[in-house]
């Protein structure tokens, strides 16, 4: 699969044309991490957006003074998924930590400053990405609400 074919599968890039994906590709840097590695940390300045190419990423909350645990996973990112959206949304601090949960994770790292410049030059790209990003954030928020409700003994589908 080419980089452009991959980018066409990324959830926040849905609806962009090939020429627009080429411009996004110019902002991408390929990186990889080993299992258990923390890629971004909750509370750090968020200056990069990430697209997962291969592997699995756990988004976790970290408790002060404790080692990270899979029990703290709130969301799992699969290939084509995105994390680090805080890089594009003030106050630009990561809200969760991202850990590689596969033998190896391969991902694209995009500097928020490069993306913001591109969005200013190509407003359609910015509109499509931010519209899709809002949908991703909404889905994650809803999933978290469902999980918290389930843990509290309330089933949204049956307890009306």
Please explain how this structure is put together.
- With 160 residues, the chain is α+β, with helices and mostly antiparallel strands.
- It has a single domain (3-112, 123-149), classed as Jelly Rolls.
- The chain is 32% helix and 25% strand.
- It has 4 helices and 8 strands.
- The radius of gyration is 16 Å and the shape is globular.
- The protein starts with a helix and ends in a 9-residue tail after the last helix.
- 26% of the residues are buried.
Descriptive terms for the model:
single chain, 160 residues, alpha+beta, Jelly Rolls, 4-stranded antiparallel β-sheet, 4 helices, 25% strand, globular
CATH topology: Jelly Rolls
What low-confidence regions span 5 or more consecutive residues with pLDDT below 50? none
- Approximately how much helix is present in the residues? 25-40%
Mean pLDDT figure: 91
Category by helix and strand content? alpha+beta
What is the strand tally?
8
Assigned CATH superfamily: Jelly Rolls
Quick gist of this model?
This protein is of the alpha+beta class. 32% of the residues lie in helices and 25% in strands. The protein is globular and about 45 Å long.
């Amino acid at each position: 699969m080419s980089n452009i074919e991959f980018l066409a599968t990324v959830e926040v890039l849905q609806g962009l044309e090939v020429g627009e994906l080429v411009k996004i590709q110019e902002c991408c840097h390929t990186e990889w991490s080993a299992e258990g590695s923390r890629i971004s940390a909750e509370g750090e300045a968020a200056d990069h957006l990430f697209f997962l190419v291969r592997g699995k990423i756990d988004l976790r909350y970290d408790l002060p003074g404790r080692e990270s645990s899979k029990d703290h996973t709130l969301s799992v990112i699969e290939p084509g998924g995105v994390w680090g959206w805080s890089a594009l949304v003030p106050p630009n601090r990561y809200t969760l930590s991202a850990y590689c949960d596969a033998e190896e994770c391969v991902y694209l790292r995009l500097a928020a400053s490069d993306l913001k410049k591109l969005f200013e030059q190509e407003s359609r790209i910015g509109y499509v990405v931010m519209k899709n990003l809002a949908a991703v954030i909404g889905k994650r928020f809803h999933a978290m609400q469902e999980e918290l409700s389930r843990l509290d003994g309330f089933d949204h589908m049956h307890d009306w």
